[in-house]
């Protein structure tokens, strides 16, 4: 397997690459959120970023913008968010990323009162993002979320999308699968139902209520079970550590 780490969007990217290289990571997962990860900044810094990655023999995965709303109830917000996504996919290709992680379309609180409409907007956006990914030769990895997101937190939420877009793969976020999981079986269900579609994994710990991004062993996730589940599907691809919170 290849192991990577995600940068924080307010720290200099080159410094993050050096730190991750010193820790022995194989690649950078580049978060494409403002200020330092915005696609305009990445495009301007392309030579510097690629030079630093080459200097440390590191690969590159991109994480498309998190804080945009391609399924928002307001049309102008949807259009602006989609433009951010499409440009970010294009820049991911320009800098040679092997794959790009995509969060399902985010909405605002009003959207939860009209989820059928939100899903339609999300489908429209995903179709356009997928077209750009194919054009850019980027492997798009759709990430599982958690119940308060509204959808795409349960394995069955992905079945229709994977049927419509067979080139889409899955980012299995172990931390997300643990949030508000009353049965304790959600992660196992993801592996059982969607194992063949998993092409990327996010690792962090939490206590089951919030997406805390804790170091492993600080929260309540059983990582021996995580390893067992991944071994069941002979997983041997990229694993990103998303640790943003100190030990609490």
Walk me through the structure:
- With 248 residues, the protein is of the alpha/beta class.
- The chain is 41% helix and 16% strand.
- The protein has 9 helices and 8 strands.
- The protein has an 8-stranded parallel beta barrel.
- Helix 1 packs parallel to helix 3 (46-55) and helix 4 (75-94) packs parallel to helix 5 (115-136).
- The radius of gyration is 17 Å and the shape is globular.
- The model has no long low-confidence stretch (mean pLDDT 94).
Layout of helices and strands:
Blueprint: E1 2-6, H1 13-23, E2 27-31, H2 39-44, H3 46-55, E3 59-63, H4 75-94, E4 99-102, H5 115-136, E5 139-143, H6 156-164, E6 169-173, H7 174-178, H8 186-194, E7 198-203, H9 223-232, E8 238-241
Parallel strand pairs: 1-2, 1-8, 2-3, 3-4, 4-5, 5-6, 6-7, 7-8
Helix pairs in contact: 1-3, 4-5
Tally the helices.
9
Strand order, sheet with most strands: 1-2-3-4-5-6-7-8
* Alpha carbon gyration radius: 17 Å
Oligomeric category: single chain
Largest sheet data: 8 strands, parallel, barrel
Tell the overall outline: globular
Summed over residues and divided by their number, the pLDDT gives a mean of: 94
- Element string (H = helix, E = strand): EHEHHEHEHEHEHHEHE
Give a nutshell description of this structure.
With 248 residues, the protein is an alpha/beta fold.
Looking at this protein, list some descriptive labels.
16% strand; 248 residues; 8 strands; 9 helices; globular; single chain; 41% helix; alpha/beta
């Amino acid at each position: 397997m290849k192991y990577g780490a995600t940068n924080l969007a307010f720290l200099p990217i080159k410094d993050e690459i050096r730190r991750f290289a010193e820790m022995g990571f194989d690649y950078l997962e580049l978060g494409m959120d403002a200020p330092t990860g915005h696609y305009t900044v990445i495009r301007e810094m392309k030579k510097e970023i690629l030079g630093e990655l080459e200097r440390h023999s590191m690969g590159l995965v991109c994480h498309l913008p998190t804080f945009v709303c391609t399924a928002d109830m307001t049309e102008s917000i949807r259009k602006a968010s989609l433009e951010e996504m499409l440009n970010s996919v294009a820049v991911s290709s320009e800098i040679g990323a092997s794959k790009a992680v995509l969060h399902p379309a985010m909405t605002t609180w009003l959207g939860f009162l009209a989820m059928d409409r939100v899903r339609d907007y999300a489908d429209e956006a995903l179709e356009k993002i997928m077209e750009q990914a194919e054009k850019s030769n980027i492997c798009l990895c759709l990430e599982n979320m958690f119940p308060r997101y509204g959808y795409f937190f349960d394995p069955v939420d992905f079945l229709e999308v994977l049927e419509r877009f067979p080139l889409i793969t899955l980012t299995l976020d172990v931390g997300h699968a643990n949030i508000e999981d009353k049965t304790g079986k959600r992660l196992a269900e993801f592996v059982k139902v969607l194992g063949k579609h998993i092409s990327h994994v996010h690792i962090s710990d939490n206590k089951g209520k919030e997406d805390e991004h804790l170091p492993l062993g600080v929260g309540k996730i059983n990582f021996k079970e995580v390893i067992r589940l991944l071994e069941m599907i002979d997983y041997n691809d990229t694993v990103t550590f998303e640790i943003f919170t100190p030990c609490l």
